[in-house]
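To whoever is covering the structure queue this week,

Two jobs came back overnight. Logging them here so there's a record in the thread.

Job A:
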Amino acid sequence: MKVDLPTPVSTEEMKIDVREIEAILQAPPMNLPPWPDAQITLKDGRILYIRSIQESDIKPALGYLEKVMKVEKDFYDIVGVRVYGEILALIRHRLKDPFTLMGLVDGEWLGFANGRVWDENVAVSLHTLTFSRKARLGWPMYYAKTYYAMEMLKVKEWWSTFESYNGWRMAGLSMAQPTKPYPQMQHELGGAKIFYLDQENWQKRVKNYIKEVIGQDLSFDVSPEVKKANAVFRVPETIDL
């Protein structure tokens, strides 16, 4: 947009270093604690290894999500598209203060959970995605990122929304999450209702309930054997959704 100048100037054109623009567009990061590696034994006896995403994961993960976003069932298409954008945003620096967890079983990427920090009081749940119905990974992956927000960041509230019926049943309904007034308050994912947990509800009810459902708690003492088994990241060979 150009507007007539109100006064004569010595220079009508200026050269701008785009790195100066990037400093304006890219949000300054908060000092977030790192996610410590964790493990948990699944119902079938296999061990789920949950770690932060690594830059080397991103290219193969995006390639696999290109297939997921074509699955027109259980909202995998729209969730796949949005998760693709959220992972790409990590290397494009277009997501404010994200935390992204990868769930691996013997190196195979089977679970995903992410969120971001709104401010020191609120963290926002973005997506929980699993790539194997048999493994029952939804609960531990959602629990891991909620644990990070409530226990490690110690935010006052954790805001979720649900794009699929399965997700709402698992976390919204079974955890009895209340909602914010709607439409006065809307979740950033498409303006949907905000389901939330506060510290009182988390500490007195939900945290223990999730552990009961899963059957155990996260262990942050990851064995050398588990780390070795998951040293090489790979995406699933097929789409098992």
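Job B:
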Amino acid sequence: MNKLLFAAFLLAGAALQSNSQVMNNPNTNTSLAPVEQLNLTEEWDKVFPKSDKVDHKKVTFVNRYGITLAADMYTPKGAAGKLPAIAVSGPFGAVKEQSSGLYAQQLAERGYLTIAFDPSFTGESGGMPRRVASPDINVDDFSAAVDFLSVQPNVDAARIGILGVCGWGGIAIQAAINDPRIKATVSSTMYDMTRVNANGYFDSENTSEQRQAKRAAMAAQRTEDYRNGRYTRGGGVVDPLPDDAPQFVKDYYAYYKTPRGFHSRSGNSTDGWNITSNLPFVNFKFFEYADELDNAVLIVHGDKAHSYYFGKDTFDKLRGDNKQLLTIKGASHCDLYDQLDIIPFDEISAFYKEYLK
């Protein structure tokens, strides 16, 4: 064996030994988890029609917890150069084929590169067990989307925003507090998932005794789930719909349980979240540092929405002249899921144009 070949042999052996040590050493630090190969649906299975003004493709990226997220990317047709970008998710319990995809496609028509992603443990995204929610991991899902967008060759990393619908509207604002790379945030028809879980609707369960009862019930459910070897689901939107259901429940039914918005991968359309998913939201509080959020926020809410108080109260926590509350007169909570004649897309686009520059 000549000297050059022998040297190459030694280098190859050293590399193999080094790789073996990395693989066998549980204390070895790695900077990024590998992207999981997901089984993604290639056919158009959204609840809204495909636009001929944008290009669409499936993409994946990994979050800080090693979970691979699935997303639909929408790019304006014929776009050139580096574009401002927006990551979209929500509502809470929905999938990207529903409201978030509609928002993403509409904003792409207005000149933004957008992605609508399924949160961890849901839809086409990875993560086990399925149908688990986490205030920490879900906030990181938005930052993971920013990670991904920041390194795309056709994205201007200095001009990235996010948009959350319903429960993801609150998560979006919390993500913006945590991640200053997010230059502009839109929260549409928002919920504060920590407040509603801890205090009940309209703060009607806001006592320590009531919270303790919730904790005790979910702790007991953990024991039962472990004994049975499976997680018990809480059920999606109630079906059949009781005659005496509150109007907002009827509105949810009209979206999630009819052809208007039904999707087989959506927990709200089918069997819901694992019951124990609510536990961390009872014990976690969003917006503790809302007054420290420097970057721009637009909260869009209908004044007929049962959730309107979440938007108004959260807006009051924000500081600075780059924070806006846009009230849509006569709009209900679910009107802002998909009603193109009610959702103020032009105003939302103008907000991003002002603050993503």
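Note for Job B: Residues 3-24 form the longest helix (22 residues).

Please reply-all if you pick these up so we don't duplicate work.
Q.
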